[in-house]
Amino acid sequence: MKRSVYRILLLLFATSLAAFSQSPNIPQGAVPAPTNIRPGDCPCIFSDLRVFFRVSAPEAGKVQVDIGKVYDMQRDEKGIWSVTTDPLDPGFHYYSLVINGVRVSDPASESFYGTGRMSSAIDIPEKGVDFYSIKDVPHGEIRNRIYYSKTTGTWRSLNIYTPPDYDKSVSERYPVLYIQHGGGEDERGWAVQGKTGLILDNLIAEGKAAPMLVVIPNGNVSRPGMTAGGYNDEAMALFREELFGNVIPFIESNYRVKPGAANRAIAGLSMGGGQAFYTGLRNTDMFANVGVFSTGLFGGISRQPGAAEFNPETVIPGILTNPASFNSKLKVFYISVGEQDPRVEATKKLVQTFKEKGLKVEFASFPGAHEWQVWRKSLHDFAQRIFK
Q1: What's the number of domains the chain is made of?
Q2: H-run or E-run covering 381
Q3: CB 133: neighbour CB atoms within 10 A?
Q4: Residues near 277 by Cβ (< 8 Å), separated by ≥ 6?
Q5: For residue 195, is it left (φ>0), alpha (ψ between -120 and 50) or beta?
Q6: Residue 18 lies in a domain
Q7: Are residues 264 and 359 in the same domain?
Q8: Alpha-carbon distance 305 to 345, whole Å?
Q9: What's the CA gap between 194 and 46, in Å, rounded?
Q10: Is-contact 134 46, C-beta < 8 A?
């Protein structure tokens, strides 16, 4: 019965989109973006992945849209400004409207926390890619939880994905993936932009991933009188203290989880990839599965003046000189990067060094730069490798 209702709702949604595509508000040949607040409005996406933007600003003297490239919008006699972009790459794009030189969110778009602020964004579909689409499968749940951190002396928020039937299978325990966001984001990133729930729902339904919990904490950790950030030792020590002293105890006290390193994984993107590298590989007694997505730790991005070149042996003692020790403790050590990411060559070079030294490492690269489509694919790939 539930699946029949679900199919009817999908049909109604598809019919609605077809109707909206004929609306005078929608350019011929375009469809509303899935990230719009109202499905009958624009931004709208053409089949060649150009995007049509429109905003009412009758008192404005100049309006632009900045989506990595800045486009000047044209005004009509009613004060409606519009522009059509060049074709965009598939995936998730943050953007801003710039009205008389001031950056603002698009009132037609949902807002997302990224780039250090709430921002408009548009999700461009990729042909043939549906692993993060809503499907007629059993669905888990993303739950927001509040816990007290002794590290920061504040109440903090995290998100946790529980798989389908978690509340029904009360005797079953689950492995846990702790996954970290990037710089300028927080615990909302993987839950919303990253589509973690849908990715895991679909993988579990297909039998490609083990049912698991996915914990998405806020990796921005600080306390009064202490400044910590980026990849320095102080920042990593504070992150470790928060994770080990607060997050993991909270999860293991409140959820049915399997104990032991073999049943824990840690992963992350960009800054979070660095956190996973440091914390996972320095604590193989806690994590037997480590995933590092698109981190700048390995190089490929500008460094602070005077910063030393990355040396994995300094950061993780023994990783080059005693790889057998890591091989015996790690079930999965995984690294990924976007093929157009400036970090790609440094990442590939390090992976090759690891392999030459005898360290077992699994590597994947995906089309794209430093962006969510790469990280969604990384999670989709990594989740299939762990907890086997």
Answers
A1: 2
A2: helix 372-385
A3: 12
A4: 290, 292, 295, 297, 315, 316
A5: left
A6: no
A7: yes
A8: 21
A9: 23
A10: no
Domain CATH code at residue 43: 2.60.40.10
99 in the same domain as 62: yes
The dihedral through the CA atoms of 279, 281, 282, 283 has a sign that is positive
Q: Which domain holds residue 148?
A: 141-385
Both 171 and 244 in one domain: the answer is yes
Distance between CA atoms of 230 and 312, rounded to whole angstroms?
17
Query: How many helices, marked H, and strands, marked E, lie in the chain?
Result: 10, 19
Same domain, 88 and 155: no
Within-domain flag for 6: no
Q: Report CA torsion sign: 234, 193, 374, 330.
A: positive
Counting residues of the chain whose pLDDT is more than 90, the rounded percentage is 85
Instruction: Give me the residues paired with residue 161 across strands.
Output: 142, 214
Domain closes at, from 76, 92, 124: 124
Tokens read off for 241: 């203290």
d(CA 386, CA 72): 47
pLDDT at 15 over 60: no
CA 251, 252, 256, 259 dihedral sign is positive
Q: Which of 124, 151, 178 is the last residue of a domain?
A: 124
pLDDT of residue 5 exceeding 90? no
Do 186 and 220 have their domain in common? Answer: yes
Q: How many CA atoms lie within 13 A of 104 on its CB side?
A: 13
Decide if 47 is inside a domain. yes
Instruction: Kindly tell me the sign of the dihedral angle through the C-alpha atoms of 341, 345, 350, 352.
Output: positive
Judge whether residue 109 has pLDDT over 80. yes
Residues 192 and 311 in one domain: yes
Using CA atoms, how far apart are residues 222 and 187, in angstroms rounded to an integer? 15
Both tokens of residue 20? 């909206």
pTM (two decimals)? 0.91
Based on the fold, state whether residues 262 and 194 are members of the same structural domain. Answer: yes
- Would you give the distance in Å from CA 121 to the centre of its chain? 14
Residue 201 CB-density burial (10 A; 0-12 exposed, 13-18 middle, 19+ buried): buried
Contact 217, 276 (CB under 8 A): no
Same-domain status, 194 and 244: yes
Examine residue 179 and state whether it is found in any structural domain, yes or no: yes
pLDDT tens, 302-347? 665 555 688 999 999 999 999 999 999 999 999 999 999 999 999 9
The position carrying tokens 């083990």 is: 210
